[in-house]
Write a structure and sequence with these properties.
Largest sheet: 7 strands, mixed
Shape: elongated
Length: 287
Amino acid sequence: MDLSDVRKNIDRVDKEIRQLFMERMILADQVACIKAETEDTIYKPDREGAIIKKQTEGVEPKFLREYTALIKRIMEISRKYQYGRTMELRHCFPFEYIREKKEVHQLAMIKEELYICDSYSKDSVITVDSYEDIGKSIKNGESDAGMGIIEEIGVGVSDELHMLLVNQNLYITDCIVREERGIRKKIVTFTDQLEVLPEHNRVKIMFECPNRSGSISSILSMISDYGVNLTEIHSRPYEEADTWNYMFFAEMNANVDTKEIRALLYQLSQETMRLQILGSYLCEGDF
């Protein structure tokens, strides 16, 4: 047997796999319809673990890891399809947003960053001492929005501003990349409402992963399965209940008001420990 014969056999097996895959997806659709009607949970880690254990019994040790990975991927793909179908059947997107631009009459900024504000009159800007003060100004109605530097690209990110968005439920609505002295900075405007406009090309999220092997790789694979490009990702450790965990902050090249991205965000909301949308915006400027 030469290589061409082996390739013919591979083609034959691939055709059989394709047929079985289509049959399995039809069954996945039936599961999605039943679960949408009963409002049952799509992702059940314990059940999937039991299936993996059962399906891998007796597999040759030299193929065990690869077959286990295959079973996991088949189930991940099946879940992706089921989330999309559930969204169609139940209209259960868990996030609210508006489809219009909120007017900003009064802006809050840190005094030291006032120099970045060239799109608003200085008379309409309230200056404060910290990002926490900006959040208070927005929440008590003194200002409509805040502005700050969320990242110096290639240098570092502002944990303080990121945590303000998380803790105060604020959302980025505009982002401009500006270069100063050889350093490119992401300057963002944020407010207390999630705005989604047709021209938006970025979605900012924060998520927490279960503290187990493969959790972050599974989430990144999930995002990739939706054809979404990550333009930024970083993590921030924090202590909770005497244990350390991580928040992951990610920016995606996407628009919330599309079928695929809504399904992705719905799936992330169900398969992470915590998910928050931190903004939807048009990112202008060269990265």
